[in-house]
Specification:
single chain; 600 residues; alpha/beta; TIM Barrel; Oligo-1,6-glucosidase, domain 2; Immunoglobulin-like; 3 domains; 8-stranded parallel sheet; 5-stranded antiparallel sheet; 16 helices; 20 strands; binds 1-deoxynojirimycin
Length: 600
């Protein structure tokens, strides 16, 4: 897409996504344009100058489509409309146009694995008979061992569990009032899985892609990209224990069923997935998904301007993930191995090497991700006793992080990720060093996982708290007009006040200024287009992670003692919080710090 308004120093590149820094906007929590307590598209437009100044290349917006919001918009009722909560299609167009004028690409979220139960297709399926074309768009089955017509099918068709807790199947009541078929929902009961063998489903999603491509979207983040195709016959899964293993007792009562989005009477089987990556299963990472992405690749190729797709696929090992980015499939996949490595030099070095190798084997760029709207924010994870753990939410009775330590490590990790070749994803608020809200009261929690597991799994609300823009304003300035409208939809912790953007803007040593400096450095040195060579001083077993990218030497100190600055090099940028713009005299890299160095 050629754009006369793109600043001259931002060259029109081909395959812009190769090294793009993409900023994830979670629309409900980014900026509130109308003072109703909920972020929206006008809020995004209003804050575009901030994002441009930050130095990112692209924005990815989590879903803003028409939705009953049972899973914060990942339950889409109409793929072609903006939910009134977030504005209108005109607001989207205005936002997109303004973003493009500022040289920012815009990626929208595509949710193809499931619709909302309020989608017209599911409503039609409920009204239609078993075996009808309307039912054929979803995954409806009779109960296990049900004698056809007997109505005795009171056992779910197989043993699959919902990722959000409880069974993955719900039984419907047929239009005539009799107990009916079961439908599959890998997530909430309000998110029925589509049947991807159905040609109408395939055609509809192609048309949805075209709808947003025609409007000018530069790409798609593909939700649950590893989940669309299920193993034929939907067999039981022996590994189901992996989903229920380690389940804590129900330890807190959520608000009464019915009040909560997604609350369901069968939410009585709490479980905790020990890792978001499941062992091979009949519902994830089936080879058949790749045909879908080859098909979509051809749709995108009909358009100008290097449109792209990025897969959200929690699969292992890195070679399996790389399959999603083969030349005729998607352009990128989120690198969750890197995110899961935590603050640990050896684990991080292994993840970096394995992902670079796997990506190179298919000629795709790597991506680097530390946080998103589904994970505990990394400054908080890195401040826990074990900074490699991956808690599924944190509540006040859980271990609380050392926030200063966590932030120091988060800043250091950012310098590592920004110097790696490939593309990087930032989650809104990480540029402010925001922590997870770890003391949200149960009654404020909205994530369906919290409710479906009856509080056994805390869920993701703590990383979704509305951003603080101005310390001395109601809601920390979440409402862009500064009006004193409704309180933000989730309460903000007091720790957000001093981290508000206005407190960091122009302040040497602040996390915001660090991000601005790092992004500018990365862009000037073209680090995203470079390559990695482990440095002589690289010694992850001793806590030193060090690599060259072009003329830059990157050294992260994960150890217990300062590391010497290698001879012949000077520090040009440091993640340490001490305000400074000149580190050249530094001869030691403190612990929990990363520095960029160049030759004297
Ligand atoms: C992944 C999304 O990131 C998450 O927020 C959502 O709950 C699930 N997919 C289901 O759509």
């Amino acid at each position: 897409m050629s754009n006369p308004d793109v600043p001259a120093d931002r060259p029109a590149r081909s395959e812009w996504w190769t090294d793009a820094v993409v900023y994830q906007i979670y629309p409900r929590s980014f900026a509130d344009g109308n003072g109703d307590g909920m972020g929206d598209l006008r809020g995004v437009t209003d804050r575009l100058p901030y994002l441009q100044q930050l130095g990112v290349d692209a924005l990815w917006l989590s879903p803003f489509y028409k939705s009953p919001q049972a899973d914060a918009g990942y339950d889409v009722a109409d793929y072609r409309h903006v939910d009134p909560l977030f504005g209108s299609l005109e607001d989207f167009d205005a936002m997109l146009q303004e973003a493009h004028q500022r040289g920012l690409k815009v990626i929208v979220d595509l949710v193809p694995n499931h619709t909302s139960d309020e989608h017209v297709w599911f409503q039609e399926a409920l009204a239609a008979a078993p075996g009808s074309p309307e039912r054929g768009r979803y995954i409806f089955r009779q109960g296990k061992d049900e004698v056809p017509g007997s109505g005795d099918g009171d056992r779910a068709p197989n043993n699959w569990k919902s990722i959000f807790g409880g069974p993955a199947w719900s039984r419907i009541t047929e239009a005539d009032g009799s107990p009916g078929e079961w439908y599959l929902h890998l997530f909430d009961t309000k998110q029925p899985d589509l049947n991807w063998e159905n040609t109408e489903v395939q055609e509809e999603m192609r048309s949805v892609l075209r709808f947003w491509l025609d409007r000018g979207a530069d790409g798609f983040r593909v939700d649950v990209a590893h989940g669309l195709v299920k193993e034929p016959g939907l067999p039981d899964w022996e590994g189901v224990a992996a989903m229920v293993e380690g389940t804590p007792e129900v330890r807190r009562e959520p608000s009464p069923p019915g009040d909560a989005p997604g609350a369901h009477p069968d939410a009585v089987e709490p479980h905790r997935a020990v890792s978001p990556v499941y062992p091979p299963s009949p519902f994830f990472d089936q080879d058949g998904v790749h045909d879908i992405y080859r098909d979509w690749n051809r749709v995108l190729a009909e358009y100008d301007g290097d449109r792209m797709m990025v897969a959200e696929a929690w699969v292992e090992p890195a070679e399996r993930l790389a399959r999603y980015t083969r030349p005729d499939e998607m352009q990128q996949a989120f690198n969750f191995d890197f995110l899961l490595a935590g603050w640990d030099a050896e684990r991080m070095a292994v993840a970096i090497e394995a992902s670079l190798e796997a990506a190179a084997s298919v000629g795709a760029p790597c991506t680097w991700v530390l946080s998103n709207h589904d994970t505990v924010r990394h400054p908080t994870r890195f401040g826990l006793k074990d900074p490699t753990t991956f808690p599924k939410g944190i509540a006040s009775e859980d271990e609380q992080p050392d926030s200063a330590l966590g932030l120091a490590r988060a800043r250091a990790a950012t310098l590592i990720s920004m110097a790696l070749p490939g593309s990087a994803y930032l989650y809104q608020g990480e540029e402010l060093g925001l922590p997870e809200h770890t003391t949200l009261p149960a009654e404020a929690r909205q994530d369906p996982t919290f409710h479906r597991t009856r509080g056994a799994e805390i869920g993701r609300d703590g990383c979704r708290v509305p951003l603080p823009w101005t310390q001395d304003a109601p809601g920390y300035g979440f409402a862009v007009s500064g009006n004193t409208g409704a309180a933000p939809w989730l309460p903000q912790p007091e720790s957000f006040g001093p981290l508000a953007a206005d407190q960091q803007d122009g302040v040497e040593g602040s996390t915001l200024e660090l991000y601005r400096a790092v992004l500018a450095f990365r862009s000037a040195r073209k680090l995203g287009r470079g390559s990695l060579a482990w440095a002589e001083v690289h010694a992850p077993e001793s806590g030193v992670l060090a690599f060259h990218n072009g003329e830059v030497l990157v050294l992260g100190n994960f150890g217990f003692a300062s590391a010497p600055v290698p001879e012949g090099y000077s520090v040009v940028l440091s993640s340490a919080p001490e305000p400074s713009s000149d580190w050249s005299g530094l001869d030691e890299v403190p612990v929990d710090c990363t520095v960029y160095l160049t030759r004297d």
